[in-house]
Amino acid sequence: MRVALFVTCVNDALYPRTGRAVVTLLERLGVEVAFPAAQTCCGQPQYNTGYRRETEPLVRRYDMAFADYDYVVTPSGSCAAMVRDNYPRIGRKAAAEGRGSGLATAAARSVPKTYELTEFLVDVLGVTDVGAYFPHSVTYHPTCHGLRMLGLGDRPRRLLEAVRGLELRELPGAEECCGFGGTFAVKNAAVSSAMGEDKVRAITGTGAAAVCTVDNSCLMHIGGTLSRQGSEVRPLHLAEILASTEEEPWV
Amino acid sequence: MSGTFVGMPSFPVAAGVAVTDERLRGNLRRATHTIRDKRAVAVGELADWGALREAGKEIKDRTLRGLDGYLVELEAAVTAAGGVVHWASDADEANRIVVDLVRATGEREVVKVKSMATQEIGLNEALEAAGIAAFETDLAELIVQLGEDRPSHILVPAIHRNREEIREIFVRTMSEWGRPAPEGLTDSPAELAEAARVHLREKFLRAKVGISGANFMVAETGTLVVVESEGNGRMCLTLPETLISVVGIEKVVPSWRDLEVFLQTLPRSSTAERMNPYTSMWTGVTDGDGPEAFHLVLLDNGRTATLGDEVGRQALRCIRCSACLNVCPVYERAGGHAYGSVYPGPIGAILSPQLRGIRSEVDASLPFASSLCGACYEVCPVAIDIPEVLVHLRERVVEQGGKGHRLEKAAMKAAGWVLNHPGALGAGERLASKTRKGHPKKLPGPGGRQWGQSRDLPQLPAEPFRDWWKKNRA
Ligand code: SF4
Q: How many other β-carbons are positioned within 10 Å of the β-carbon of residue B7?
């Protein structure tokens, strides 16, 4: 089983801890992980802002970077959704615009092997108890793309519930968007902020010590709002919790 | 009387103002959360919801594919039943037709049953200019009209108003339009409804001309269908001598049988009812019963152009249930007026820029008025992939260029180059990490300012992942 990590541009530049947590976790589970250096970004920010043509080289690059692997695992629900939902669209449109079928083929190759981390753990490795230990109260925010585009369902919850010492706190209105939405956070800053503030109110209301998601981009928005409000609640990627053990606590 | 949407500011500007209105946000939050929870229950009762949703989508798609044929079939059926069909390519033509039809009756006032198509074309204003008074009879529409306000929701146009505000509007304005509000009116829902009922009754009994919209038109029988909760619509459809229905061409369905699907999905999605209290159907005219003359104005107004767009045309499947508005976190905070159209919320964000084009500020900003969370797609009873259409329309706005987009395009191009050169990307990340001590928590520039209004930036790490990997694993 040849497994590659697609760390994503946001994690690479801003949240390398998440990438390290994924490596720690997967290696602990006996998976040999590779990191193809040719990878960069899935193209989601450009695509969702209306720059479809600009994402085409990134679709090709993704296919090229991960060509030799059976599985691509990424700790980002929205990037996985970008590949699975939008790469085929980008390929089809390029073909429809008379630019050949190459892109469609590249896109088609990427789709079946791309897995969001919790899908990979539960569906491919078949584990829900990853041997983690995290003696803190945690609330979980299911990000929109993980929830609706990927249909992650209760996989993240099942993983969290199996963590020893962890007390999972229910998040009211969990399925409501946190208001990040990529460039939406800047283009419609007022509405985005209002949504973020409501989300943070719900999070702090749980009294949990940490909030976790499967997407650091949403967490950047939530964490930035928590920080501005001087809140003690820690924003954590789910992988960091799963990487934590009694012998080697992550935080 | 009701204001039009001409010259609206862009969505972020209008929404930015609305978001600070605590009362508005409270009203919207309460209303949308109540109805969305109820909808979930009503939909959950049907084991075959998924199949019904798929069937609705299929019927609408099939209809749109053969729209020209179904419209001709409809025209023949309506004509055979004693009605007269008029074709209107745009708002002006539709307004002209209706004004002429009302003038021909010699009447100076009409009663209206809630019709989005007539609001879309600004019919009330056109009638007023022609010296004809139009009275809205749907309760929420009445509130909007009396308040000299604009609708802000598809189903509940006065959703932005609470009970106290409605009482105040009734007391202040009803007397100018007819029967005044009763003495000592309180804000209890029953009293408010009774005041509206008494006020409207007078209009119904006097009116010789009624103007309606329709939820569906059945091609094979020429039947029009209005689905409503109050019964005011039914009065409007049956009491006047002349009935004029103004309907968008996409509202046609091929056969009577197709209603089976929509009469289940529409009420559950919109009012969370298993079945709506009143479903009125009329086919042409009937001797000695109902209106003696029936006119159907078939409205295009940008629909054919929308049909020509392979991705965007799915917006024409919409049955105006308003479920997408009620689950939309952006609508909930921005309010309906920010969308600058009679069609607010997620569906408005994709419908208005298609029907009207993207030249105006508000229309060019609408495709960006979404975080793409997908809640709208999830609830839509005809499975319109609104996020897909939003992104598709963003592309069109970007191509058009204009305000802000030139700079953005240059930035996207530059980012595209870096992202296609991992070496350069790594070097950039390294440099950023090295200089991180000097980085502010807030970014300068307009984008940074906007991000920083309620959020801190994350701290840059000491080392990007790429470099950690090189040192520790490669
Ligand atoms: S887009 Fe779908 S959910 Fe929204 S109003 Fe139309 S039919 Fe209802």
A: 9
